[in-house]
Amino acid sequence: MIRQTVGRPKVSVVRSAPFASRLIQWQLVYGRHSLPWQGTRDPYAIWISEIMLQQTQVSTVIPYYERFMAAFPNVASLASVSVEEVLTLWSGLGYYSRGRNLHRAACMLMEQYNGMFPRDVAALQQLPGIGRSTAAAIAAFAFGERCTILDGNVKRILARYFGVNRYPGEKITEERLWHLAEGLLPVGEDHETMTSYTQALMDLGALICVRTQPCCQYCPLQADCNAYQNDLTAILPVPRPRKILPVKEIVHLILLNQGQVLLKKRQASGIWGGLWCFPEITVDQDGIDYCKKNLYLRATKLTELPHLKHTFTHFKLIIRPQLLQSVMHQPVCEESSRKDDCLWLTIEEALQQAIPAPVKKLLLMTQPVLQSCIHE
């Protein structure tokens, strides 16, 4: 997302005004007001945007949000489709458990609340994928409830403002930040105040109090900010303790047959659960032998492809793609693949399925190679 601070005059605020009042005044002038999920009190639209924005940049979310809302404009429409249809639209956005939880929550809303959202924050947290902060955002934006959010941006703001010299992700520090955040809530419970204040927290963290090189000269809180006053903005918040991520290597078998490529549906649980991927083996397995024993296909090796690296939260993945040519006739492939939950698709069709980003990247990166092999 582009930070829209260049060329702005320094913010002038009443320094004696409460924390919330200063933020609200700032947001009305300098905050974001044209995002596609703003200007609505529809809890469904707010919920979809909040889930998509978890650990994902606004600029990435916008096209996904617009496509998702066009396909599933309400709870009933989301609950009525299969989870695979949801994951197809989610493909490329990452953290696919969010998409699965959206579908589960929509079904629960239909079954328990007749498609309506509960106003209560505690009740919202009982829905799959909705944590304390997300529940507060939905309740504040949709219902004007007096409750605070505490996402990563807000943790950063409060850690700097109060000079919290501990990693915000540890439990004891996070509970302290929740306590501090609740003490800063604006007085009164009118809907407009809570909407403006909640949006102000989000905007300040996204536009001003950013992770590196914060724009403190434009911040309405600088007069009381501990980090700014003590030149600690580059140090706070305390970063996550460094941890060397383990590396896992796997092989993806890219099988070709009569102009088509084979995708295999993964189990519902685990990484990329329920998504379509290439058949996967370990680096010490023989790809041709695997095809014979598990896919009932005879195959020969083709061109070697470059390795692909992908980083998850808890480990790094190295994918070694192995391009193979099936030498069995297509009808037999179709018959055997149906038993194993596989699909033979053209490259264009494969790109339209619910596939994770690395699979899409492999298809796009190697499309010329695949096409040349297909036409030989």
Helix/strand layout:
Layout: H1 19-30, H2 43-52, H3 58-71, H4 75-79, H5 83-90, H6 97-113, H7 121-124, H8 132-143, H9 152-162, H10 171-183, H11 191-208, H12 226-229, E1 247-257, E2 260-265, E3 276-277, E4 280-282, H13 287-295, E5 299-304, E6 308-311, E7 316-326, H14 330-339, E8 342-345, H15 347-351, H16 357-375
Parallel strand pairs: 1-7
Antiparallel strand pairs: 1-2, 1-4, 2-3, 2-8, 5-7, 6-7
Helix pairs in contact: 1-11, 2-3, 2-8, 5-6, 8-11, 9-11
Question: What report would you give on this structure?
Answer:
- This protein is α+β, with helices and mostly antiparallel strands and 376 residues long.
- The protein has 2 domains: 19-229, Hypothetical protein, domain 2 (Endonuclease III, domain 1), CATH 1.10.340.30; 247-375, Nucleoside Triphosphate Pyrophosphohydrolase (Alpha-Beta Complex).
- It has 16 helices and 8 strands.
- The protein has helices spanning 19-30, 43-52, 58-71, 75-79, 83-90, 97-113, 121-124, 132-143, 152-162, 171-183, 191-208, 226-229, 287-295, 330-339, 347-351, 357-375; strands at 247-257, 260-265, 276-277, 280-282, 299-304, 308-311, 316-326, 342-345.
- Strands 1, 2, 3, 4, 5, 6, 7 and 8 form an 8-stranded mixed β-sheet that branches.
- Strand 1 and strand 2 (260-265) form a beta hairpin.
- Helix 2 packs across helix 3, helix 5 (83-90) crosses helix 6 (97-113) and helix 8 packs across helix 11 (191-208).
- The longest helix has 19 residues, at 357-375.
- It is globular, with a radius of gyration of 25 Å.
- Residues 1-9, 12-16 and 329-338 have low confidence and may be disordered.
